[in-house]
User: What shape does this take?
Amino acid sequence: MTTVVPLPLPALPEGWTAEKDFKPIGKIAQSEATQRTIEPVGPHFLAHARRARHKRTFSEDDRIQAQERAKNVEEDNESDLSEPEDPMMLSRDAKDWKQQDHYKVLGLSKYRWRATEEQIKRAHRKKVLKHHPDKKAAAGRTEDDNFFKCIQKATEVLLDPIKRRQFDSVDEEADVEPPTKKQLQKGNFYKLWGNVFKAEGRFSNTQPVPSFGNENSTREEVENFYNFFYNFDSWRSFEYLDEDVPDDSESRDQRRHTERKNLNTRKKRKAEDNARLRKLLDDCSAADERIKKFRQEANAAKNKKRLEKEAAEKKAAEEAAAKKAAEEAAAKEAEEKAKADREASKKAKEAAKNAVKKNKRVLRGSVKDANYFVEGDASVATIDAVLGDVELIQAKIDPDEIAALAGKLNNLKVADEIKAVWNEEAARLVGAGKINAGDLKALSA
Assistant: This one.
């Protein structure tokens, strides 16, 4: 079985029907049981149908279609690219093109530097269709073509990137004036100033330009914005306002003079523009509550650090003073203790010395009480011999031993008992090797 893909039905002019205005020109078998009618389609057939319906020749149909297309271009995006034309602008002399507002001439006042190349071209087509000298002549109007030349010049400038940038540099209509005090009292500070710097940002070589922000912007965002504009890298120039340079070769000196003059004037205007922008920033930052808030926070943090530092220094000084006082007290206490110890030691030494003296008196007194170990009166030689042995023994024993010996001799009255104690001590010392037995004269070991 043979199958044929059905062809789409044509889009016929309004009021036409296939059954009434056309006859089938052929049939194709879709199957053994069914058949489908094929209808003529395509732009060429529709053009033929339109000419046949309206009984037009080829030239007449082309002319009418061109007029309808022109009308459609005029009506295209009427709301976007339409604005009232100033009668004064329509009567402008084309020779004075530098003084004209190119955007206004093309009806792009609300777009200005934001207008795209496509919008400029569409606006140009629209203005040309409306103000072309041939169209005016066909309508029986004999006005001059000055405004048409203004349209052409505006298009030439705005479609040339260099010329457009030069014009945008001096386009005062695109500038946004800084808000007055009265406006700031009634309006939103951040929105009003934001519009000003948004307009200024169009001259920046660096894109995108930081936003002015709002009351919730962080410190980093605000500082980034002001740093960007205080170090603004602008492409704005002022060649558009240059004085025309003579073209004739005979005025070469005049041409050079004019070029130097234009160059100096550009530099002056550039410096004035930089000063103007800096003043805008100064005025804005002076009234910016965010900067005041950040400064207060910084001062509070600084004061907090200062107070913390002062408190730490005071605490350290107090601790140092307390430590010094403790050290002085400890030193004084140690000195007093040492003094007391010295005095006690001195007293102890004196007491020991006195005790030794007393004990020695006891030792010497004991031999005296024993009558130097003889019956009757003791001779001088006997006394010297006994006292010599006493001195020898005293010299060989320490204070404790002297005290122990004195303790043994104390309260003894019998001469033999006293002598026995002395002989015992002498024997002890001889046995210890401290004295020789031959050194004893009256005592025996």
Notes: The two ends are 166 Å apart (CA to CA). The longest strand covers residues 27-29. The chain is about 65% helix and 0% strand. Residues 289-369 form the longest helix (81 residues).
